Amino acid sequence: MIVFLYGQDSFRSRLKLKEIMNEYQKVRRSGLNLFYYDFEKDGFVDFKERTETLSMFAEKKLIVLENVLPNLNLSQKLLDYLKAKKESKKDDTLVFFETNGFDSDNPLFKFLAKTAKTQEFKPLSGQSLFQWIKKEAKSLNTEISPLAIEKLAVSFSNDLWGLSNEIKKIASFKNYNKIEAEDIDLLTKSKIETNIFKTIDAIAALNRANALKLVSQHLEKGDSAVYLLAMINYQFRNILSVKDLYQRGKSFQAILKSSRLSSFVARKCYLLAQKFTFSKLKKIYSRILETDLKIKTGKISPRQGLELLISEI
Length: 313
Fold this sequence. Notes:
Blueprint: E1 2-6, H1 10-27, E2 34-38, H2 44-52, E3 62-66, H3 72-84, E4 93-98, H4 107-115, E5 117-120, H5 126-138, H6 146-156, H7 160-173, H8 181-187, H9 193-204, H10 208-220, H11 225-247, H12 252-259, H13 263-273, H14 278-296, H15 302-312
Parallel strand pairs: 1-4, 1-5, 2-3, 3-4
Helix pairs in contact: 3-4, 5-6, 6-8, 9-10, 9-11, 10-15, 11-13, 11-14, 12-13, 14-15
């Protein structure tokens, strides 16, 4: 049997891989026929020699192969090997594991897509991400409020490794009582929140060139375009809310209490709210939601959508 696990979400794919390996070891405790090859370090010859060595135990082998597909030459060797050894390896389980990018025209990928038990792990977003955060908190025997979930999603986007660690940290701090939005404000520092406000400042000043430059810097550092859009969405929604409270004559302290924002975010939103008219903020927020929908429906790429949004508002 051949299993193929791949995709950008390495947290969930590694969890699945661990599950497969644990199930194998429950039945075959010796572990002598469990082989793990990372082809960024291991070579094809070593793989071939070790996996073809007969064990004194008549156990089925579990062979995990990581980082194969980015190497076209290696991919072809393994494809030829699989076809040649089809009968002799039919009782073994081979798991191809990929978290890095690869060419979809790779012949081995096409072979695996047709013959393997395949599972792709795409980055989570929207309600799927919210549900994952809720489930992760539940696994620690704690609850988490919807607003706390949203704040974590904005701060970490689809970085499940970071989210998992953060949820564990906060749950422990709260002695596993319910996690609230104020706990996120107290204990979680957004990776790029301060710089997002710089981008919004540039937008408010109608300096689109600087806003695009700041966004480009984020992207070059590896920040996700979807994450950046989510942060911009979140902060413009906060500014719109603060603007509404301000227009109703609320003081800053009253706004701070009503919005439930951290003092830093509330103050930034309060100052930025003075730079936009209420109608302009509503138009911008509507445009952000429209861009988000286009990205989610595949009508535009995340980067293109983000850059087009910045250039038009």
